[in-house]
Amino acid sequence: MLSAKMEDYLKTIYELQGRSDDPVSTSSVAERLGVTAPTATSMIETLAERGLVEREKYKGARLTREGETVAIEVVRHHRLLETYLAEQLGYDWTEVHDEADRLEHHISEEFERRVDEKLGEPEVDPHGDPIPNDRLEPVDESSGETLSEHAEGDEVVVERVRDRDAEELAYLSEAGVTPGTRLVVEEVAPIDMITVCLPDGEPVSLPGEIAEAIRVSSAEAGGSGEPSEVEG
Fold first, then answer.
1. Is 105 exposed, middle or buried (0-12, 13-18, 19+ CB in 10 A)?
2. Half-sphere exposure of residue 103, counting CA atoms within 13 Å on the CB side?
3. What does residue 156 show for φ and ψ, rounded to 5 degrees?
4. Other C-beta atoms within 10 Å of 140: how many?
5. What does pTM read for this prediction?
6. Does residue 228 sit within a domain?
7. DSSP label at 100?
8. Residue 36 belongs to domain with CATH number
9. Does 87 map to a domain?
10. How many whole angstroms separate alpha carbon 160 and alpha carbon 216?
11. What angle do CA 96, 209, 74 make, to 5 degrees?
């Protein structure tokens, strides 16, 4: 049996390694989980001893196939729960992350199956993150570019929004920037501020750190552009 803390580490390494071909550094794991580097190092060593992680000294860690399977299952639980909370229980998308974090380690496979069936086997959660299928196949955690990578005049579609900061989500929800929203980059200011134009023509200025939290696809590349159903 793995503890909830162990599963949190595996999930974190999985999400981080999906964004780069390099091993995941201990410091990035520690930062994501809000622990010290020595604490993260100790847990990664424990996971390596259990065959769930391959650790390269001074470089970082990668999940073994067994570790990846565990991590994907936790990610699947988390994202299904977020979707269930939002669609069936009326939670706002700013609230579901922390609630799903508390529940993801404790649901049975039967409960998972029934939730998936009730929701119609959804492919993405309320933040646009892909939900792994029941075969626990890896999903693309690096899809899209951040909004901050785009230049003035670019037309994009919001695909995913980082879900770990409720204040960021509330800011974006109030601004009307949610998955499925079509945006035109109006201005990229040197003061780390990006102004985008919404479908109704309303300009919205976003600080650089929030623009970094938004992953988009080019509207010309076939982004969905479907109206978002996320409630603010």
1. middle
2. 20
3. -135, 165
4. 9
5. 0.89
6. no
7. H
8. 1.10.10.10
9. no
10. 7
11. 35
The model's pLDDT over 154-191, given as tens digits with 9 standing for 90+, comes to 999 999 999 888 999 999 999 999 999 999 999 999 99
Q: For position 205, which CATH number holds?
A: 2.30.30.90
Tokens of 110: 């039967």
Q: Say if CB 179 and CB 160 are below 8 A apart.
A: yes
- Phi, then psi, of 116 in degrees rounded to 5: -60, -45
Token pair belonging to 213 = 């939290």
- Domain containing 45 equals 4-67
pLDDT at site 227: 39
**Contact assessment for residue 81 and residue 89, using Cβ atoms and an 8 Å cutoff:** no
127: nearest Cα among 155, 100, 152, 89: 100
CA distance linking residue 70 with residue 77, whole number of Å:
11
Domain boundary among 39, 67, 95: 67
Return d(Cα 61, Cα 49) in angstroms, integer: 13
Residue at 66: amino acid letter: E
Q: Contact, 112 vs 14, CB < 8 A?
A: no
Q: Could you tell me how many residues make up the chain?
A: 232
Q: Tell me the two tokens of residue 194.
A: 């990006």
Tell me the C-alpha to C-alpha distance, in Å, between residue 155 and each of 151, 199, 228: 9, 11, 17
Whether 78 is in a domain gets the answer no
Q: Which amino acid is at 48?
A: A
